[in-house]
Amino acid sequence: MSILGSVLPETLRMSVPYAMAAAGGVLCERSGVVNIGLEGVLLTSSFASVACALATHSPVLGVVAGLVAGGAVGLLHGTLFARLRVNAIVSGVAINLAAAGGTRFLLRGWFGSSSNSPDIPALVALPGGPFTRTLLDPLFLLSVVSVVVLTLALSRTRFGLDVRASGEDPVAAHALGVDVVRTRVLAVTLGSVLCALGGVALSYDQHQFQSGMSGGRGFIALAAVILSRWRPALAVVLCLGFASLDALGNVLQNSTHLPPDALSMLPFVATLASLFLVKRGQLAPEGLGKHAD
Amino acid sequence: MKATHPGARVLLGVLVACIAFEVMVFLYGESPREMLSLLYEGTWGSVYGVGQVLYKATPLFITALAVDFGLRAGLFNIGTEGQLSIASLAVAVAGSHLGMMPGALGIVLLFAVAVVSGALYAALPALLKVRFGAHEVISTIMMNRVADGLVGLALGAGLALPGTVQTTPLAPQLTLTKLEAWVPGLSGSSVSTAVFVAALVGVVYWVVVSRSRFGREVTFVGWNPVACAHERIPVARRTVQALLLSGAIAGLASSATVLGAKGYFEQGLGAGAGFSGLAVALIAKRNIPSMIFVALLFGTLQQGGLFINGHVPKEAMEVLFAVVIVAVALSDSPSVLALLTRRRARAGAPS
């Protein structure tokens, strides 16, 4: 198979976790909440979906469990920051620590392995080559739909307006009667559900949970959020770029003798390089990290 | 927002850690009482255990100082993990080429290597921060991942002994003496004179932050950069210096692992010390004695985690760290009750 023929579907497939984490990140940050806990949301949702799919033998319930678990982590982060005034970075660090430790703890406790869980059943059995299988994957389709919905919701709905108002100027939004705290908690919860869709896709893609399987994708997604200047569609496109480096790395690893360490570094090096392109984040939501009173 | 008293933070941390530990053990289906006594036996219950706790706590204290210095300047240096691993590799490789050097001079030289390499690895995020406005949280996290790759590459490219993932062992005079040489009860423990190095770093750190003009300026920059700029304090320069110095201090944590415990570097040595040190710094919040106690608490949990690993997976301890961070952070925020009532009052009466 040609390089292009294998890299393209691979890129699309691998972009889902990045893109959904970035989409979720945009929603959180537009409401004024920094969320470095996206990495933890990815891990938690991957694990929850696998654990539930194995326990119930139902892949669909696994997806639901993953989304619920991700939303719960978001609810926690949103409440800690918006309602209880804990520094968002501190809360995010704690969430990432708890997710990394907690998933490995349960992996060993429940599945007796420090590396991976048993295999889960596939969501659906799809016919055809890698291209059709990627494009028809329900999680892929759901991701595409939710990015479109998010973009429209942010720009065209009352909720989107509340979110943007809370993010740009929480004091003014509060004065105009927007419940900034509730809007933010809701935005972070929903954003984390979006991100969780990426985590679920990750584990269904690998048919199992692997220790630390999010592999920094949540952090890269966060960089994509900033590079896109907090625009969901652009953030998703940037994530396609990061995912293509992942896919390229995979293909090169199979076809050449380049050291795997060098290839796995690619997306991170690219992210660092791209940070040189942002100019002083002047388009960041003005109220990022600020409270209404 | 008023911070809780330093002593109260430490006590709260210990208390929450104990309660959360008991709850987790209970939920996991083991006896909380047995596990707690096992935890105690493996740590403070024997001289060897105490030595291991000190050994685990040493790098945590040093990386906590590193993170703390960044925080003073208003920077979240999440990159201590990467800065430490690069510095550890640099120290081990430099040390393996200094075999002929007399001990004292060689060790001082290796400390210099640790400081310089840690600082250099923090240079890129510092540059990105002041020149391009890129948030240091993102860039330092990326640098951590890159450090993982770089260390793997370097070890694979010939810095490791053939067929292994470890570097050439250092000559004996270049390593720090293990305390077991003086205290027989510590036999087998990895605790070394790095403990005293850490204490010295702590003292110097205190002098710099509270008794020097430079330290005060860094703290002022963290409080209010705009006011500092008006007072002609070079804000960008102090920011860069703070991040570089933070990386330099993080590099010094290699004294406990490479120079103290092992005498060589291997993949994964000291891994996690950066993140745990971040946790220690966040809990202790600018109070150096608190950092010692919280580092000891975390050292106890890490060492105790190994002891109960047969019954409860040791990863449970990382969850405990997170719980303690959140609990102590919550103690700084206005109480849940106050916030709820205040919200009600607002909703009723327009201000």
Descriptive overview:
The complex is a heterodimer of chains A (293) and B (351). Chain A has 293 residues and is mainly alpha-helical. The mean pLDDT of chain A is 90. Chain A has helices at 3-30, 38-56, 59-83, 88-111, 130-136, 138-156, 158-168, 170-175, 180-206, 217-227, 232-255, 260-275. Chain A is globular. Chain A has twelve helices and no strands. In chain A, helix 1 (3-30) runs parallel beside helix 6 (138-156). The longest helix of chain A has 28 residues, at 3-30. Chain A has a domain at 18-216. With 351 residues, chain B is mainly alpha-helical. Chain B has one domain (6-337): ABC transporter involved in vitamin B12 uptake, BtuC (Orthogonal Bundle), CATH 1.10.3470. Chain B is 73% helix and 0% strand. Chain B has 16 helices and no strands. Chain B has helices at residues 6-28, 32-42, 47-72, 80-96, 103-121, 123-132, 136-159, 194-211, 213-223, 225-230, 235-252, 254-262, 273-284, 288-308, 316-332, 336-348. In chain B, helix 1 (6-28) packs antiparallel against helix 15, helix 4 packs across helix 12 and helix 8 (194-211) packs antiparallel against helix 12. The longest helix of chain B has 26 residues, at 47-72. Chain B starts with 5 loop residues before the first helix and ends with a helix. The chains are: A mainly alpha (293), B mainly alpha (351). At the A-B interface, helix 4, helix 10 and helix 12 of A face helix 6, helix 7, helix 13, helix 15 and helix 16 of B.
Proportion of residues in β-strands of chain A: under 5%
Question: End-to-end distance of chain A, in Å?
Answer: 60 Å
Secondary-structure element series of chain B: HHHHHHHHHHHHHHHH
How many runs of DSSP E, i.e. beta strands of chain B?
Answer: 0
What share of residues of chain B is helical?
over 70%
Tell me about the largest β-sheet of chain A: none
Radius of gyration of chain B: 21 Å
Task: Give the N-to-C terminal Cα separation of chain B.
Answer: 22 Å
Number of strands of chain A: 0
- CATH class annotation of chain B: Mainly Alpha
Structural class of chain B: mainly alpha
Total number of helices of chain A: 12
Low-confidence stretches of chain A: none
Mean pLDDT of chain B: 89
**Portion in helices of chain A:** over 70%
